[in-house]
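Pilot study result, target chain (366 residues):
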Amino acid sequence: MRIERIEAYIVERETKRPYRWRDGLPGSKPKQEICWLRVITDEGVDGWAVSSHGYIVADLVRRCFGEIAIGQDPLLKENLWHQVWEFDRIEEFPIYALGLLDIALWDITAKIARLPLYRLLGGARDKILAYASTVTWETVDDYLRCVDECLALGYKAIKIHAWGDVERDGKLAKTLRRHVGDEIALMYDGSAGFRYEEALRLGRMLEEANFLWYEEPMREFNIWQYQRLCQDLDIPVLVPETADGCHYNAADFVVHGACDLLRTSAHYKGGITGAMRIAHLADAFGMFVEVHGGGLPNLHLCCAIPNTRYYEILVINDPKGEREEQGELGIDSEGYVHIPQREGIGWQVDAKQLAEEAVLVVSVPK
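Predicted structure:
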């Protein structure tokens, strides 16, 4: 089996539910630029991956991915993963592009094995608790309303993205704890908004509110700062999320005591191959590894990895309506998401219809 063609389909869609993040970060864009990556083999088994960074990924397909993968055996994923890593030395791929080819190759592999991906990866479970991951709201009352709606649907855990203001965020954390009681897991994501002194002060307030974890409070350039923070706080610190370097970088955080929990994902950590490396690294040190973001590849990771606890679902402004839109990736009444049992990753893509909807199609070789 050989890879004979790689295609990228760009689809533009209006953003239905605009949202914002903390102060200083851009929010949602008016229009989504989605790229579907298709790896075509000479034996009729295709693999898919998807990115929200459409035109950038299409350019990389045209200039880089074809050179790396055309003519190669798609089942030799380790070989191609390292070739992408080598290419990155010169190209400096965006973090969200490093794993796209790998995701598509795992889709092919699982289809050939006639298994859902999570089972091919070893399989730890076929359902997992989800947590509702909020966007940034304007007021405390907005958060309370959103949380109440999520709890009514069955969520047992809530993660907040707040304003990036130490005092205001800390007060919100304490208010939420009083509001939901002691049985609901609460987490806080700082989106790298603080300096060390601010992160320390807010972390102590989160400890008082008994939060489960403290995620990415500072930019992840400086391991020494995270080492200090972990030494000075009792609440588990969850990193690295956006740092380049996959498991190589994650290992530095672990051995320097600069994290208590590790972040992994298919889209920021080098695809399925890179994400599983980080999961195994965490397991070797007796640590939990939490999967960043939703979508089918990350759900397969959640169900393949025994040392993870939750699947992340972004909740924007209508938890009930969004659950209905999520369909099979929405929670049940007990707060679980059940993984689809289709072969491969499980996307149901109509290539002909996709080509008709696409505003741009890139195909290599031409």
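One observation from the pilot: Residues 85 and 208 are 43 Å apart (CA to CA). A full batch analysis is planned for the follow-on phase.
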